Amino acid sequence: MSIVYVGSYGSGISTFARDGARLTLLDRVDTPNPSWLTLSPDGRTLYTVDELDSPSVAAFEVTGSGLKLLSRAPTGGEAPCHLLLHPAGYLLAANYGSGSVSVHVLGDDGVVGPRVDLVRHTGSGADPDRQAGPHAHEVRLAGDLVVVVDLGLDRLIGYRLDPATGALTVAADPFARTHPGAGPRHAVAHPNGRWYVADELDSTISVFDPDVSTGVLHQVAALPASSSTVDGGNYPAGIALSRDATRVYVSNRGRDTIATFDVDAQGDLTLIDEVSCGGSWPRHFAIVEDVMLVANQKSDSVVSFALDPATGLPRPTGDVVTLSTPTCVLPA
Hints:
This protein is mainly beta and 332 residues long. The chain has strands at residues 2-8, 13-19, 22-29, 37-39, 45-50, 56-63, 66-74, 80-86, 90-95, 100-106, 112-120, 136-142, 145-150, 155-161, 168-177, 184-189, 195-199, 204-210, 217-224, 235-241, 247-253, 257-263, 269-276, 282-288, 291-296, 301-307, 314-322, 326-331. The chain starts with a strand and ends with a strand.
């Protein structure tokens, strides 16, 4: 048995026991809008955001199958939607609404301390409705760089973090630039150095190669995230690599599918499969062992898929749990 946490907009943080593809509810903590979750390396502290009510980050102590609130701190931005635990002892939050990134110091006990830095992006993108300003959507590591994926600017921006103070300074802007109006949301890096970015606004996957001298990325391709269009549009959300790095998976909101792409020896992508997500609006998914767990935000469900060991293709197992507006799945 292992543990899976599910964050949401409507039902706090749920703790499940996982037996294969089956989830059994163990505990639920009422906390506002924990739309993203991340776990400390030692598994003792769970961190989350309050995206909507009072923009903040929070730390919870893991107590057996339950959670106990340790601390909460405002981010100084609007709509925090993603977190990064930096190995130097800081928690970083991407603030979508304000297009900013906050840095919080962490105590030895895992408690979130005061904010020590806040960097604000400026500018706009090609889409007047969705890109009138910056929208930091993901913050991740690339070697010693902190990389922020900004949906509003069609850019990934690289920073260096001072381990003594937590201050961020721009190291590469852009670290990567998508085609105009793409709306980059989340990214994954292949072991061969190639990056794949899920573009929310124009329903594409952008492919990037690193410059051998600088490490900065340049776009080499873009391909549709789904095999067909749908009335109302399609908005890719989650993206992940298979354990052997031969598959890229993408969740499509609108088409309501999980798309599987083959990764060839050169790192090029080919769409080889697309299966229903088993609900509506698959905002996020996670892979643990040979199981994919999909959070279907608008159908109030987490649906389990088995990954075929020979092909890597996801197929529904029939295991479904119901909870209000799930947004993030985190296997412990």
